[in-house]
Amino acid sequence: MIILKNERDLESMRPACNVAGAVLRDVAAFIQPGVTTRQVDNFAAERIRALGARSAFLGYRKYPCQTCISVNDEVVHGLAGDRQLRFGDIVSIDCGVMFKGFVGDTAKTVAVGGCGVLAQRLMDVTDQALYVGIAEAVPGKRVTDISRSIQDYVENNGFNVVREFVGHGVGRTMHEEPQVPNFVDSKCNQRLRAGMTLAIEPMVVAGHSGVKILKDGWTVVTQDGSLAAHFEHTVLITEGEPEILTWPERIPSKLKV
Ligand code: MF3
Ligand code: CO
Ligand code: CO
């Protein structure tokens, strides 16, 4: 069942998504050569707490961290640890928060200091694929229109989408119906309606699309060791343009704890 959000729901869900966007912005700015992924996750925890929210990930199916931090060939669900980020790495940060009873879910990939031209192009194409997908999120179209637009854009640029993980509806819980794949799946062809809130999240790899899960039970990596990028927004379908909910609007960047 797809849960439509009314204006009253959105009075809470908009701020929840703004907080997620603000935390993601701040964490991205914190990334620099030499910091460990645990320091990044701890910083995220501080920001989430300072804004009065809590992580939507910690404890979800026993997930052990506040955020997902995935480096280079890690696609999603990377666990924070002792790994030090190095100049040239690319880091995908996924931040989901619970605030006022709703979840905001958003992700982006950033370079540590700078990166190679392939990595930069992979990030640019994935970022752009997200907006190409969001543009299809209008009433009357179908989930497959979002999926197709993302897949076509990515493949036309010489990269591949991951198939094992997909976008999703989001609301009072992190994962609601419908699933929003980044490739055309005829089983996921629901009609889009105003009031739907979707986490649209292309996961894109520079090489072959196959992925595997590391022994830690969480970290998803490319099978061929190629680089991966991940961008995500929580989006509201309206009668007009789609509304991107996970911008960090109205949330001060430096809030006194
Ligand atoms: N935020 C991820 C998503 O975009 C889900 C993370 S699940 C967790 O759907 F367990 F790793 F937190
Ligand atoms: Co996410
Ligand atoms: Co998501």
Show the helix and strand layout.
Blueprint: H1 7-30, H2 37-50, E1 54-55, E2 68-71, E3 74-76, E4 90-99, E5 102-111, H3 117-134, H4 143-156, E6 160-161, E7 167-169, E8 176-180, E9 197-200, E10 203-205, E11 211-213, E12 220-222, E13 228-230, E14 233-236, E15 243-244
Antiparallel strand pairs: 1-4, 2-4, 3-12, 4-5, 6-10, 7-8, 7-9, 9-14, 10-13, 11-12, 14-15
Bound molecules: 2-amino-4-trifluoromethylsulfanyl-butyric acid (MF3) and cobalt (II) ion (CO) (2 copies).
Task: Give a quick rundown of the structure.
The protein has one domain (7-247): Creatine Amidinohydrolase (Alpha-Beta Complex). The protein is 27% helix and 24% strand. It contains four helices and 15 strands.
Describe what this molecule looks like in 3D.
The protein is of the alpha+beta class. It has one domain: Creatine Amidinohydrolase (Alpha-Beta Complex). It contains 4 helices and 15 strands. The strands form 4 sheets. Strands 8-7-9-14-15 form a 5-stranded antiparallel β-sheet. Strands 1, 2, 4 and 5 form a 4-stranded antiparallel β-sheet that branches. A 3-stranded antiparallel β-sheet has the order 3-12-11, with no helix packed on it. Helix 1 runs antiparallel to helix 2 (37-50) and helix 3 (117-134) packs antiparallel against helix 4 (143-156). The longest helix is centred in the N-terminal third of the chain and has 24 residues, at 7-30. The N and C termini lie far apart (40 Å). Bound molecules: 2-amino-4-trifluoromethylsulfanyl-butyric acid (MF3) and cobalt (II) ion (CO) (2 copies). 2-amino-4-trifluoromethylsulfanyl-butyric acid binds next to strand 4.
